[in-house]
Amino acid sequence: MSLKKQLINEQGIRTDGRGIDDLRPIKITLGYLAHANGSVLYEQGKNKILAAVFGPSEVHPKHAELPDRAILRVRYRMAPFSTEERKSPAPTRREIELSMVIRNALESVVLTELFPRTAIDIFIEVLQADAGTRVAGVTAAALALADAGIPMKGITAGCAVGKVDGKIVCDLNDIEDKEGEADMPIVYIPTLGKISLLQMDGLMTQEEFKQALSKAINSAMKVYQLQVNALKTKYIKVER
Ligand code: CDP
To answer: Is-above-0.70 flag for pTM?
Structure first.
């Protein structure tokens, strides 16, 4: 019989030293790449995610273009060296599905109708993964889109919450994601007060779910504040 590993100690401290509501440290480096229209290196704890935006540009193949709006193309990939066990470089079903999930989360904010017959390409490259990469990917993509000057109704801010050792905790790391009882990634759009991605693995009661949702929105608001600060620092120059 294997004993379940304790992930939160009696003092309420998690394996990486955080309290149950604490997020991992976040670092945002805008304009990280020279050849993209917009880019960011987004670090959240051990997660290191590069997002690059190209466009709006002509659509190839031509028949894929839409007469009334731009198409968003999202490619989420994990580098072979991003996980503890080397991952195959071939795209997995998970990566293809997450590319679609992320595109859906972004489609509700990008003003695609301003750029008919064009494509906006968003690349999300996970260089190092430590759980929550889909929501960190959406967070990073919004920053890269803003960096590219693409108009949006709001900025998507993501964070996962979950149930670990019977408690609802914010921003799960890899071991909490794998060994915890539930994992719930969400993406929130503060300017619209709307959620554009919500998934859940595992089991929670209705009460726990309500608590998780409220903690997820609070966490996303903290992420949003950091996104806004990073964009203001780069783009709002104080006149002297
Ligand atoms: O990353 P996210 O939580 O959005 O997606 P997941 O499918 O729930 O994966 C959770 C974590 O498992 C990832 O962030 C990686 O740390 C890890 N993982 C892995 O080690 N190898 C894979 N092929 C896929 C995920």
So the answer is: yes
